[in-house]
Amino acid sequence: MSRTPHLLSIQSHVVFGHAGNRAAVFPVERLGVNVWPLNTVQFSNHTQYAQWTGEVLPPNQIPTLVEGIAAIGELGNCDAVLSGYLGSAAQGREILEVVARIKRANPRALYLCDPVMGHPEKGCIVAPEVSTFLLEEAAAVADLLCPNQLELNSFAGRRPTSLEDCVGMARALLARGPKAVLVKHLDYPGRAAENFEMLLASAEGTWLLRRPLLAFPRQPVGVGDLTSGVFLARLLLGDDLLGAFEFSAAAVHEVLLETQACGSYELELVRAQDRIAHPRVKFEARRLG
Ligand SMILES: Nc1ncnc2c1ncn2[C@@H]1O[C@H](COP(=O)(O)OP(=O)(O)O)[C@@H](O)[C@H]1O
Ligand SMILES: Cc1ncc(COP(=O)(O)O)c(C=O)c1O
Ligand SMILES: [Mg+2]
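Output (structure tokens, whole complex):
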């Protein structure tokens, strides 16, 4: 029997609803990966409600908690680290130390960075110094980087003019160190309005994936966190980059269909659990160039 992979997932916790670890832990475990959730913040709800209560984890708690895992002899069993929503740049620096420590314990361990930067128009609030940390420090260390279009624009320092330009921006990120860049949401002049598009860039090439754009009265939150979690889970379960990319698009689309059918604002992860594990839809990515 093959071993169950272990993933250290360092992102936000919300008591109500689904974002950060609350969008990733359950689906990733449902797919068959053990998750070690380490919560960077504990908020009542995600920040797009415009109000919330709760606290940011003191940065020194990150190495303290990882030290506890090392002390019981389990750190070498960690197969990957995922980082997402951060409460401070200081937390980010502690995460990079933790990644280095885990890679010493298990040189095959992967680090996926979802560079959650905030989106003032949408109401996603992240401390501004976190963006600087992600741009200048985290990208160089990550094996896998999963920006959305706005985050890709921040890395490039400009907006794209076309799909080809998005490809160039994603491939420029590869040059900073990651083995793959998954752009979770593409937006560029001339994009067909009926589609939701994603991009995967690696040393082997670049792939574009299109799925239907669904209508929501209010855009659900946590979709990015769900996407990066499922993508990494499938890699840990043995998929190649392209397979994990296509699977994550299908599983996320199933969750969005369920969410839309229920008329919910929060992602319907519990109701969609079987569809996450066994998506009925399939999207094939198209190789570009
Ligand atoms: N198929 C889809 N149809 C409609 N909206 C979608 C679909 N897939 C994702 N979304 C929405 O697209 C947006 C993507 O957000 P974006 O900021 O680019 O990424 P992230 O989720 O990482 O923040 C989210 O608001 C999400 O709810
Ligand atoms: C607490 C928290 N975590 C994570 C996120 C990121 O969510 P998404 O997956 O939509 O990028 C948000 C977005 O507002 C948030 O408020
Ligand atoms: Mg995001």
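The first helix runs from residue 21 to 31.
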